[in-house]
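Exercise 7.
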Amino acid sequence: MRRITRLIAYVLVLAAGAAGCGGPDPGPAAPTGAAAPATTAPATRSDTPTAPPPSPAPGDHTLHLPWEGRTRDTLLHAPPGYRPGTPTPLVVVLHGRPSNATAVRETSRLDATADRHGFLVAYPNAPQRAWNGIGCCTDADDVGFLRHLVGELVATWGVDPARVYATGFSAGANMAWKLAVEGSDVFAAVAPVSGGFTGGRAYDDSGYKPPRPVSVITFVGTSDRSHASMIEGIGRWRDNLACRPGRPAFVDPGRGIGRTTAKCADGSEIVDYVVTDMGHAWPGSPAYPPVAVDANEVIWDFFVRHRR
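Solution. The predicted structure, written as tokens, is:
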């Protein structure tokens, strides 16, 4: 019966053109204060001259790393209190599809969160404005590239390898789920926002799970057109890792935001926030209608509690 239910949910998501895999990110119907859509040039060939790598220091930087015959760009923000050589946490932020690093930087506003709490933020660009996530959308070795990016930041920027995290929006959230499985030796925890454990092996392979513990916190809006698929993906993740969910609880006075925590057999946990009437959005971002939860602060509190 559960297999039939999953198949039905999958068909419904395909019919709707799910943002994470089957089509472009829809964004909010009428975002408030949203930045204009940003564009980025395709990744350049690796033999194209590039600027020398930036020296580690507070502020905004652009990294140019060769990968698969091309140079891939990453925007990097270091908080005012950053000191080279001091072990520092890192959050990798993954944009949606079709989108880029500038857009998710403006939507998430994680630079300000990093300044308050003292972590580095990396916003990598996917070469075709889309990630090779679970079942979608390119054949690029994005997991390999993101490993390479983290390795460079550990070696040159003093990133603490025990405190490396990933988050992402929409199709970038799907990619964060993939990193939880295929990058569990690098990422201690992930935070997919408005994106699901859906598509490809996530649908039909119960063995598709992290070989070492990776904790997950995720946010889903009940008005998101991919809501059903994302909720089903949470259930599938719990099944794969033998997680035991606790009792759901409301976290706001208006009882519009439910939170459920599940403890998993490998020692990890998965926490899901379900936000009533929220669409395809980043909770707390000024680019979207306001909701009674600040995803950035909740995500960072969660990351602080998890390290490799």
